[in-house]
Protein: SDR family oxidoreductase
Amino acid sequence: MPRLQGKLCVVTGGSRGIGRALCQAFSNEGATVILTDIDREAGQHSADALGCRFMPLDVRAEADWAALAKQVPACDVLVNNAGITGFESATGPHDPEHASLADWRAVHATNLDGTFLGCRYAIGAMKAKGTGSIINVSSRSGLVGIPGAAAYASSKAAVRNHTKSVALYCAQNGWAIRCNSLHPAAILTEMWDAMLGDGPDRAERMAAFVADTPLRRFGTVAEVAAVAVMLASDEAAYVTGAEFNVDGGLLAGSAASPG
Ligand SMILES: NC(=O)c1ccc[n+]([C@@H]2O[C@H](COP(=O)([O-])OP(=O)(O)OC[C@H]3O[C@@H](n4cnc5c(N)ncnc54)[C@H](O)[C@@H]3O)[C@@H](O)[C@H]2O)c1
Structure:
């Protein structure tokens, strides 16, 4: 029996990377999937390939969420997956001393405002039934400081905390609407291209990035999706306000004393 049979799942940032893998895994488990993304062309392309329905949605735009609520007034699962590091547009450094306010705000607008708006939509779309699963994709960077990506780390830490507020709010209201956060690290997607480049030293750079990861490799998008399937399913009916690391063991110990 497919684990998500009969469920309507909405995924943000679904056109590539982790989001696309989530859409694929949810479809494989029998769900009806609405793949959303800011990138219309790539989103439509991925949705067609996976047999999902595509809807354009910029997670920063309140009007886009209102349009989704109109067209999809009820859903069972929402994954707030869309996110940016801020390095994609690379206007300058992202450390606490030199980051520009514009860059800081841009990262928070997508990662944090987008997640807030998504949770707000999902509560409205789930409360009539009184059940549902909201999955917020945070990061390992939401649990530790990252000097060179301060805005990203701050936004992901706020996503972790907002997850718990949403979980408690829903429980207080007597709804079995669960909200949990995922904390991936070093999952090989296009998000890494700005950091790894495509030059002859790419393999060397990749090895350097995972040198402190106990499992000594990048993770795959399917490995993140597998955990999300569990959280989306009724198998996780007693799991809310929790955080799940998908990081090859990185957060299990200190990189400073790996032995
Ligand atoms: N890849 C990793 O190692 C890693 C690690 C930790 C956390 N994460 C998180 O996982 C999520 C997915 O990461 P990924 O590696 O697949 O990234 P990615 O860059 O490959 O894909 C991100 C997707 O989000 C979409 N997007 C960007 N801005 C958007 C917006 N305003 N509205 C709607 N869609 C938007 C993009 O078009 C793209 O399809 C992100 O939240 C990211 O922070 C990734």
